[in-house]
Amino acid sequence: MNLSTFSKEFSNKWVAIGGNRWINSKISNKISQVTKKLIDSKCKIVTGGADGTDHAAMVTCLKYKIPKNSFKVFLPFNIQKQYQYERKLGGRKKAEILAQTLYKIKKFYPNSIIENKRIFQNYRKAADFRNTLIVKLAKGAIIFSPSRSKGILDALKKIGEKGIPYIIFQ
Question: In angstroms, rounded to a whole number, what is the distance separating the alpha carbons of residues 32 and 63?
Fold first, then answer.
């Protein structure tokens, strides 16, 4: 299914956007184009709140002022713990930019940020739980995956089990 058909079919339905944490400017631009197309088609957007693909989708949703009831961000932790985790991975500057975006969403879309209150032993378990919540809500998915990380493989497995349509951009 191509993106035009997909975006029409999933108008007024939840579409998950996910993918790699480490993206380049070409992939970031593609994420923005696809997210804008979904917004223009009145799709509802759900994503995971991590750096990379999720962040590019969130920034695009803010930029194009997605309607308030059409946007959800599921975090594996609360914002502060997400910041700490991202800081370990990508450094302080990247973590601060992500945290600023999350706080901006919380301000302008107060019901859109879903912070995980459960306590997990590690990030992978928290992220897998977050993926379960995203896939449970989604009726379709867009995956940006130049490589197959554990998180992407987990999400694709859950998407397959639920039988929801998806598009992968390499």
Answer: 10
Question: Distances from the Cα of 106 to the Cαs of 28, 34, 103, in angstroms?
Answer: 22, 23, 5
Strand, coil or helix: what is 110?
Answer: coil
Nearest residue to 134 via CA among 51, 56, 50: 50
Measured CA to CA in angstroms, residue 100 lies from 30, 72, 106, 131, 132 at distances of: 22, 16, 10, 22, 25
Rounded Cα distance, 123 and 130, in Å: 10
Residues 6+ apart with CB under 8 A from 59: 32, 101
Domains and CATH numbers, the chain: 3-169 (3.40.50.450)
14 in Cβ contact with 137 (< 8 Å): yes
Mean pLDDT of the chain: 93
**CB 166, CB 142: distance < 8 Å:** yes
Identify the sign of the CA torsion 84, 50, 116, 70: positive
For 41-70, write each residue's pLDDT tens digit.
999 999 999 999 999 999 999 999 999 999
Residue written as token pair 């130049």:
146
